[in-house]
Amino acid sequence: MDKDxxxxxxxxxxxxxxxxxxxxxxxxxxxxxxxIVNLEYGHKYKEKGAYVTxxxxxxxxxxxxxxxxxxxxxxxxxxxxxxxxxxxxxxATRKVNVVDTEKPKIELKxxxxxxxxxxxxxxxxxxxxxxxxxxxxxxxxxxxxxxxKIIYEVSDSSKNTTKExxxxxxxxxxxxxxxxxxxxxxxxxxxxxxxxxxxxxLDNCEGDISSNIKVEGNVNTxxxxxxxxxxxxxxxxxxxxKIDRNVKVVPRPNNRDKTIxxxxxxxxxxxxxxxxxxxxxxxxxxxxxxxxxxxSNLDYLIxxxxxDGHTIGLHTYTHNYKTVYSSVNxxxxxxxxxxxxVYNITGNKSKIIRFPGGSSNTVSRNYYRxxxxxxxxxxxxxxxxxxxxxxxxxxxxxxxTSLDVYNNVTRNLNSKSNIVLMHDFEGNxxxxxxxxxxxxxxxxxxxxxxxIKLDTYPAHHGVNN
Length: 465
Ligand code: ZN
Fold this sequence. Notes:
The protein is of the alpha/beta class and about 475 residues long. It has helices at about 1-25, 275-280, 300-305, 320-325, 330-345, 370-380, 400-410, 430-445; strands spanning about 30, 35-40, 50-55, 55-60, 65, 75-85, 90-100, 105-110, 115, 125-130, 135, 140-145, 150-155, 160-170, 175-180, 185-190, 200-205, 205-210, 215, 225-235, 240-250, 260-265, 290, 310-315, 350-355, 385, 390, 415-425, 450. Zinc ion (ZN) binds near residues 265 and 266.
């Protein structure tokens, strides 16, 4: 039995060897390179060729290669090799897998580290995903928000996955922006009213914070100069913005075309003032009376002038140089006296004044050196305005006749504002008699007549004391 088994094994072995040898010795097509090739999408397959063997020897036989690869589509393709050898048809196949192992690419719009207001959520700035095979994968991107991070993830159809991250920094280091209403550099005339134009503030995180704006600084339009109004605002994270407005207070320019401001000083008087009021009324002209503290019997003239629409200015109560120019307090005591007197008659607290002798007078030097420099500033500090003149009728000086008065006025008119100095003190008939002709001359030559208001061009003289 042992022997039989041995023989059987030997026979089996021999048959096996012969079979294998016969099989290997049969003519066949051999492939150069691997029989299964993974070809990355987008690459070209490189044919490595094949050859025929028979009895372990390479044979000279022509091989036909049939390549059915579709490079545009992932998948498994065959390259078929065929040959005719000794009337036998030989075949072989190489498998080519077109594969995609390349990951998609995610591109983030905006910064990779986004700065976000602490009181806000991150607002997506956008992204795109492109894959070499699937092309646009933007719609497939999954966006996840984690602590201080946004994660973008996308996979292509071959399960190649890409991740991108955007860091989020919650902070506010940007100061608000203040926008001034109106101009940053403003110019106002003396005694014009400054109305705070306001401002608005916009913060990057908190929006409109205009109500937090602090406004500091005062504009005193009764004093010439440049004033600074400061606007400041802070957001909740202590970012502060400050901006200044410069307000320049300048003297009113003489830019009113062809206007005559008739002014009568030192009245009222019983002999002259009624006649002047009559002519003004008949000619429908408004004027200005710089009154002094005359007898209370004449109060009715001040009342009448006021009721007729003329301006009542203050020329001091006493018109006494020594009284008004010996001290600043003396001046203001006297001024207050006439102001109260006029107030009691008219109900109006006049702030319109004329210095006895004008602001350029040198008489005051006899009493107090430099007092006009002080008073001209101080009256404006206290909200008054003083008016000098730029046309002098000389009716308190060299003019002897009404023709002199007429000529002195009409020959010196300019084409803008004319503040004409005249007087209605007792006995000044030359002015009374010249008045209607002066008015007629003005009307015929295109002048307007007006009374002085607080903001009228003041025709200030140079101060000489
Ligand atoms: Zn006077």
